[in-house]
Amino acid sequence: MFNLFKKKKEEPLYDVTNLSVKDLDVGFVFDYDMKSWIVKEVLEYDWGNNNFTREYKVDSGDEVRFLEVEDDDELFIVLSNSISLRKIEEDVAEKIRKKGKSHKKIQFEEETYFLEEESAGYFKSAAKKGDDWEEFITWQYLNEEETRVVSLTQWDEQNIEASAGIVVKPYQISNITPSGN
Prior knowledge:
Layout: E1 29-32, E2 35-46, E3 52-59, E4 64-72, E5 74-83, H1 92-99, E6 105-108, E7 111-125, E8 134-143, E9 148-154, E10 160-168, E11 174-177
Antiparallel strand pairs: 1-2, 1-11, 2-3, 2-7, 3-4, 4-5, 5-10, 6-7, 7-8, 8-9, 9-10
């Protein structure tokens, strides 16, 4: 007999035979740099004009990082982790707090980074339902070869965070497997 009250299993929003980094979600596993990583959290960014990006908190068992995926004509992927503002040679936090602007170039670990983009937007964890978005401004810097990234993010007048990472090519992320949910 049919159970009319049984909930129908939802179909995935991705093709399981052709998964890409754009399909990642909580619980997904992928390989990068000879390690397996699991997606622990999905973070969403609203840049205005119907432009959204995702960032994934990922864990390899011995380290936690963030995988930013931007699809603007081509994929731009950055794997990063938080760093101390003190590791950036210029006093970027002071300039941001006083003038609301950052430097055009900065020094980090004896390498020069150039301002690529300044953007304002809204952020929330994808797990949170509703419109509980936080406002922020971010400055993204790239090194000369455009292989390394430093980002500065201002959440309010006093709260400024920094992260550093590497640019990842889509083919470097492999063996994407959906969660068993």
